[in-house]
Specification:
The protein has 13 helices and 12 strands. The chain is an alpha+beta fold. Helix 2 packs across helix 3. The radius of gyration is 21 Å and the shape is globular.
């Protein structure tokens, strides 16, 4: 399938319509409804209707690999081809992570419980995995020790289905809690065709240190450090701080949190804050703290930890690490991601594809990102 490169939005809409008609096996009614639900959750660009945005999104997906949300993250409705081509799109990123990471080793990070078994000493909290088949006794014991806890669906990403719970919500009855949580999670997982595995991860709450809690106390504000291992060592590729917003417990790019860029050498935040809706914050709207210039505590210590962890995974050269700062004034691991996103493109307001290819000394030569995955 040939996809014309054009800056003419009307032509992009026409190509999007052709793609929709030629790929009925992909664009079921459910998939189309999901795309529209994402589009309608954002403020539409003034010059386009939701239907036109839908077709432009299809064009940008097949031509560049941008998933629907990225059209809004990166303000693609106001960018020409030369600008869009500078971005690492979500789908094109997979070509690079598959070049850098051994497929047979990806489960070490994709399976969050497997990661915990390897790196448990760096987690600073208890974590268990529960399914319909196993983990019931461990769960009963767990909520006896931890009245509050976090539940994460197995096999999903971008904070989908993650929530904070208390034993009181289920009248202190572990069996009721388990039954409800597994049923809720099963329904969420069934909605995503790419979900891998069943069950839930249950984690002890992180007690956040004041040095980061001051930014937004309701959420565990985190640091994303993407480690890239090349022949000359470990590199930190555009680390960012993620800060919760509006009293929301969740803190991730995909949950609408604020993201700001960190200088990889000094640990000082060097950009203003931005959300995935292109909202711009000089100061945090809830706490009033100025974002640019904020100093991440014990940056040298965190840097050493990130490098140490990256070296433990010989076959995974690209890892997105999430870290939290505890009330014991220590850095701990939240999780590692084998195909973490290029979050830095949001606060730095530019594409980072060329810098990344220069760093790894490799560039995908595919005409389109999807060659080898979909038939032409």
């Amino acid at each position: 399938m040939f996809i014309e490169t054009t800056d003419d939005f009307q032509r992009q809409i026409s190509i999007g319509k052709s793609i929709l008609n030629s790929r009925p096996e992909i664009y079921s009614r459910e998939v189309i409804e999901d795309i529209y639900s994402i589009i309608n959750s954002y403020t539409l660009p003034k010059k386009f209707t939701a239907e036109e945005v839908f077709y432009i999104s299809l064009y940008n997906y097949w031509r560049y690999g941008f998933v629907t949300k990225e059209n809004f993250y990166f303000d693609l409705f106001h960018k020409r081809h030369s600008e869009k081509a500078e971005y690492m799109s979500n789908m094109n990123k997979l070509n690079y992570t598959r070049h850098l990471n051994a497929k047979e080793a990806e489960y070490l990070l994709a399976d969050k419980y497997e990661t915990y078994k390897i790196l448990g000493e760096y987690y600073g909290r208890e974590l268990i995995r529960v399914s319909y088949e196993s983990g019931h006794y461990q769960f009963r014991d767990f909520i006896q020790r931890h009245n509050e806890f976090v539940v994460k669906p197995v096999g999903l990403a971008t904070s989908i289905g993650v929530k904070k719970c208390t034993a009181e919500e289920y009248d202190g009855d572990a069996d009721i809690a388990l039954r409800v949580l597994l049923k809720e999670t099963e329904e969420i997982q069934s909605h995503y065709r790419w979900a891998r595995g069943k069950g839930i991860i249950v984690e002890e709450l992180i007690n956040q240190g004041e040095a980061l809690a001051c930014l937004h106390p309701a959420s565990v504000n985190s640091i994303r450090i993407t480690t890239v291992r090349t022949d000359d060592g470990i590199h930190f590729f555009y680390p960012v701080i993620r800060i919760g917003l509006g009293g929301n417990f969740l803190c991730s790019r995909s949950s609408g949190s604020i993201v700001a860029g960190i200088n990889a050498k000094t640990g000082v935040v060097e950009t203003d804050g931005f959300t995935d809706r292109n909202e711009h914050y000089i100061c945090h709207p809830d706490t009033g703290i100025r974002i640019k210039g904020f100093c991440v505590p014990k940056w040298d210590e965190l840097s050493r930890l990130a490098e140490k962890l990256a070296l433990k995974f010989e076959d995974l050269r690209y890892i997105g690490w999430d870290f939290a700062y505890t009330d014991a004034e220590k850095w701990i691991v939240i999780e590692g991601n084998e195909n973490g996103g290029f979050v830095g493109q949001i606060p730095y307001k530019r594409g980072l594809l060329n810098e990344f290819t220069e760093l790894i000394h490799w560039k995908s030569q595919k005409r389109y990102w999807w060659i080898g995955r979909y038939s032409e």
